[in-house]
Structures are given as structure tokens and as C-alpha cells.
Here is the input.
Amino acid sequence: MAQKKAAKKTSAAAAVPPQLFWRREGADFLVTNDFGHYAWLKKKDFDALAAGKVGEKHPLFAGLSAKGFVRDRLDFDSLAAKWRSKNAYLNTGPGLHILVLTLKCNHKCLYCQAAAGGAGARDTDMTPATARACVDFAFKSSNPGITIEFQGGEPLLNWPALVAAVKHARSRAKAAGKELKLALVSNFSLMTEEKARFLMEHEVSVCTSLDGPADLHNKNRCFSGGNSHAVTLKWLKYFQKKNADQPAGIRVFKPSALLTVSRYSLSRHKEIIDEYVKAGLEDIFIRPLAPIGYARNLWDKIGYEAGDFAAFYLKSLDYILKLNRSGVVLKEKMASMMLDKIINSRDPGYLDARCPCGAAIGQIAYNYNGDLYTCDEGRMVGWEGDEVFKVGNVFRDSYRKVMASDATRACVVSSNLEAQPDCARCVYKPYCGVCPVYNYEVQGSLWGDMASNDRCGLFKGIFGALFARLKGPGSEALLKKWVEK
Amino acid sequence: MKNKTISVRVSLGEYGLDAVRYAAHASSGAAHVFIKLAGSGAALVEFSPTGSVPAKKIAAAFRSELAEEKLRAAIYAANRELRDFMILKALSKEEAPVPAPQDDSGLTPEQEKELDALIAQVESEIKQEAAAGAAGDPLGITRTWEDKYGAKKSRKKN
Here is the structure.
């Protein structure tokens, strides 16, 4: 009798799905699993799945089995491969290395998180020797592909350090046989033909900020030296033309632009997107403001609630899809990266949304003086006088010591979604990630509290919008095109 | 009035304490939550609203979350080993060390001598068979075109 009962219990346990995250959306249920698969189910089908009653005769049996939702039909090799592909970053060290060449800047943007000093500020330039030491440190990473991003302040205000870093990095890459990508994030106001030529000859891609039409851009990005919007567009066009022409012996990348959404942007999604199309850009990265650094002081003027951004984002997404239908090529970058995970089970290299987050183990920020931080946001917290995210210094600390530093470990542990009580149960967990720096700045702890966390609310809004649109056949096809490779 | 603290009694026989804790987390954005044991078989969960959401609504959301949490706990408990196995499988494949080329064959010197002699014998047999084979191929069927007719010649007329 006892044996019979035990057998019955085992059989019941075996019937439930091997893993299931879910969220009710109206009359339907969105279900996901850690392999990155998802499905939309009617309530009766969800109940059947949860009760382990999706048998071979069930109409959804084949589909759910293939996606790893049916326990006794698991394709171990295929599912493990999916998981591995989606979490490929776990096997490599930091790939993104952000060199802050100077804290000086000739702009005074309303939302600047970079804690920039004026163009005349002293002692905040990275020396060429420090730049080379930073490059050497970056090449200690176990990652076979290294991306070095030059930031500031305005990095073009420290041209000698940029040249030193670029040349040294190219030579190190050749010797080490590593793949190297170099990227410059600049407001273009100090760009010249000579500098542009050097960047193109050394295959440095360029990225700038474009906040929309001239009045909005210039309101957000104050530039006492002239018209920031006009300068931005002039050099965007320049690099686009060079990309189209591809001068002999040089590989020129398409330039890209970032949009930062301030309160002034919220009512102008169409104009902003039209401006990107007009500028010949094929990607738009709609990024919310974070109340970190200078932006925190002005939050009551330029900030907004997560719900406001979510509404802006959804309107923008739908407008982009509408433009796509009329033949305009434009993708939203955050959506593209999320979709790459959802549709292709691929790691798009989005360090802000992965588990654990990219702090130190995915990226390192190098301050002008060689100090190392978990990320650029962590460096900004340091600039405010709190060194909680400092992981070392290029001259004093070994790579091993940095990777095993207290700050690195604390960020890894606190951004492990398995250990976050809300995230571990969230339907978006297979694709999401938390930010310990945001949590620390906004909620006072690395762990934060997701139930009241605006970043979490915002990500949920974005995921919700994407999954809702993946449900509609028309928009699903368009979104899938965004991540076709 | 709407911000008054409200208590919900939960039977620990029906829901585990973990399920109670996780369900309570979902309400932590709207209320301070305090969980205490109420005797041996129950927990008392107190909600003190921190914002405009009424306590009754928070308690209702907690009860709904609790039911879902029970299902989550059941699925998790039934699959823990399977899930661990899958993740380990995914991780281990990548990390499996590539077998290093071995410096020696692992044979003793005597065995190596024996093997060398065997290889020499086999090679000698192959040579003999090849020679015999060639003799037994008067039409040259096993020979290549070039062996038979030489390299391609120019067709250019003089």
C-alpha cells in the first residue's frame, strides 16, 4: 500500500512542467522558461500545463514539448545549447572597457551623469601613459573579443590620450590575436577632418547623442560654443558619406546616435523619430534618464515617473513599426537586444540586462587617473565621493585582484536574479537583469526592492509591450526582422 | 482610514512559510509587511500601507499571489534535481577541458618495440601486395590517366 502511494506521488510530480514562469495578461497567460522559450496560452491550456495534463493528444503538445515545457519530452542537448547560447557571457571575462579620457566637457547637458568639469578644468585628463596602461589591463581579460570605448567628459578634449590608446590597442590586438573593437562616444563639437581621418584609418566607430529636433536637442544639450544640433548632424552626415563611399584601404563604420529622454521629450516621440529618419540613422536607442549624478539634482525639472517613460516608449515603438510598414528602415535598439534574447536565445551583449549584471565581470570603467570601477555608473557614484563601486587601479592592482574584489563580488551576488525574491519568480527573468548601482543610488541598497523599483517597472513595461506585439502576426514579423542575422 | 494596518492569517499546513514570504514580497512596494508565527500551524501577515493603495486591496493581492506561489513551490520542488542537471549540463559542456595531446602512448618500452615490429610487418605486406597487384593489372586499370598517358599536351597546331 505504501509503495503504491509513493509511486502515485512520483508520477504526479513527474507530470508538472520542468520549469514555468508566468504572467496573466488579460484572458491569456504568457509562460516562459530559463531556456528562453515562451508561449501564449489560454487559461484552460495554462491550467492543463500547470497540472501536468498536456498529453500527446493535446493540440499544444508538440509546440510546448519542443520548447521544454513538457517534462517527459525534454531534448536535453538542444535545451542545454539554448541556455548556453543565451548565457554565453558566463564563460568570458569583461569585454567592454570604458576609458574616461577626461572629465572635461564643453557641453552642459541637463541630464549629464558624467559629472563633467568645464573645458578648462585641470587635472582630470588621462595621460597617454595611463591610457596605455588601461589598454594593457583590458587585454588581461580572458574575453577573446575586446571593445574599448572612449568616453568623457568629451573625449576629443584629450586627443593625445586617445591617439596613444588607439595605437597601443591596435598593436596589442595584433600581438595577442584578439578581436578588437574601438568606439568613440563624442558630441562631435571638436571633430576635424584630421581627427576623423585618424579614426577611420584605425577603424574607430563613432557614436554621438541626438535628442531630436534642434530646439529639443539644444535645450537638453547646452553648448555655449555654438549649435550642438547642427554640429552633430554635420558630422553624422560626414561619417555616413564616408561609410557609403568606403575610401580605399579604410573600413568606415556607420555612425550611430543615442537618444536620452528628458521630461521635455515625452510629448514629442514622432518628431524625435522623424529626426532620426531624416538624419539617415537606422537605429534609435531610446534610453530613459536615471537619477544618478547631475540628473538627480535636477530630477524635479527633467525627471519623470517610470509610467511616463513606458507610455513614451510604447508610442515610439508603435510609430517605428508604422514607419517600418511603409518601408522605412529603423529599429529601436533596446527592443532589438531584448528580442535577440527572446527570439534567438542569443546574448546580444547588453550588459544592463543580464544575470549577473555586467558590473566588472562584463565591463570595466577606467577613470582618467587609472582607477577602476564596476561600470561607468559606478564611476559616477565614486565621483560623488562614494567609492563603493571602485574595484582597483591599473597601476596597483592585478586583474585577478580586481575580479575578486569586494565590489565585484557584491555586484555579482546582488544582481543574481535567482537570489532576488521578485525576479526569481518573474516571467521576464530569462531575459532581464537588475542594476546594483541604480538600486544603491535610488533605493539605498545593492539589492533594492523590485516591487517598488522604477527601473524594474520600466523593464516590465518594455517586455510587456514587446510580448504583446509578438502576439500580433503583423508586428511579430516586423520585430523578427529586426533580429534576423 | 484606508491606510489602516490589516492582518491576514495563513495556514502553514496549506502554504509553506517560503510561499508566504515570497507572496509578501510582491506587496512590499505598497506596504510594510511583517510576518510572524501565530501558533504552530499558522502565520500572521500584517500589511501597513505606505502609499495610497488601500490595505484591503493589498491583502487581496497577497491572497491571490499566495495561490500562485503555492503552484510555483510545487513545480520548483518537483523539478529541482532536473533543473540543476540541465544547468550543469549547459555549463559543463563549455567548460569541459579539451584533452591535451599526450606526449607518449602510455605503452611500456617492450610494448612499443612489439608495436613497431608489427607496423613494419604490416607495411611490408602492403608493399608486397601492391607489387603483386600491379603485376596482375596488365591493362593498367589501377593506374591514373597521367601515369598512363603523361601530362596534358598542347593541341595547338603548328
